[in-house]
Write a structure and sequence with these properties.
Radius of gyration: 24 Å
Strand order of the largest sheet: 8-7-6-5-4-3-2-9
Helix content: 25-40%
Shape: elongated
Strand content: 15-25%
Structural class: alpha/beta
Number of helices: 11
Number of strands: 20
Distance between the termini: 13 Å
Amino acid sequence: MVSSRQNSLSSHLRDAWVEVDLGSVEHNASLVKSWITGGERHCSLMAVVKSDAYGHGAPAVAEVLQAAGAEWFGVASVDEGTQLRESGIESRILILSPAPFWAVENAIANRLDLTIASTRQAKAIEVAAAKAGTGARVHIKVDTGMHRLGIMPDDTGDLLDYLESAKSLELASVFSHLARASDEEATTWQFQRFQPVIEKLRSQYPRVPVHLSSSEATRLFPQFHLDMVRVGLYLYGLEPRSASTDLKPAMSVRGRINHIGVVPEGEAAGYNGTWTARRPSRLASIPIGYADGVDRRLSNNMRGSIFGKSIEQVGLISMDQMMFDITDVPEAEEGDVITLIGTAPEGLADWSGRLATITYELACRLRARLPRVYTRQRQPGSSVKTVP
């Protein structure tokens, strides 16, 4: 760790880190809650915190979301759900895709809800639940057009009938997943395929909730809120491809300068010499690279900032280091902080545009090995929590 004249946050182990503003997460949760209140039926919020809360750190984020009114959490796997239980989360947790049979007992022991998409899966869980002597909660996933996971609508009736006689299983919800959540016509088409399933469910299980909407559909189409919405990306202040006008991005990425060198005019810097100095130049290195989740294709194609001044990233991004041209920031010294992504709305959206991808992918990549530092703005002042 290099010495620094700046009084700023940092990880205890590295001079590069992801900074997460939990106050922004709380703001975004409140905004989402405002979209789903006031309807004829109570609509619950399931906060999707899979992939370590999209790279933001699931345990810390889930604690805030639970306090902000999230009644459910959605995860991708048994180990993700178990991590939340071990961190003290007591809310209901749903594994959003079918779990491997060998992990079912562990899921039941940790009070995790299980997704099923066939009678075969239900039978396997019933055996494990009977063995555990505690029962299991299951959720039916219906394929209404995504064609990735789920039971076909016409086959749902037989599964519902089976569950009525399964003494060790409790049906906790029936849900489907949208393929184009921002497209009203496509969403309506999927809902229409879901509707017969809902009607049969209501006749057999009148109190079992149904859910369909993800982040974009939750904002755009209140008619599809049903009994619960599953929101992930928006809780972190991100849009799939563009900057948001009302959500607050929670993630920043920063690194301290660990070396400053001078490159003569006409000489190249970095692997393969992809950047050449057009003038005598000062280059600052920071200990962040593609092993930390920063896409190598951003080489010579991104900017950072220091002391509020925009600076150009230069040379190929390597595994553990990248360089910035600080020639026009003569006051910059070793130990000063360069921000790759701040909490300005463009942030990851700018990277996603340059890489022709989505912010989901980029946020998840940044969980690779960068430690996270948590902040939370309060009134007045602030409190800080760091995680090495």
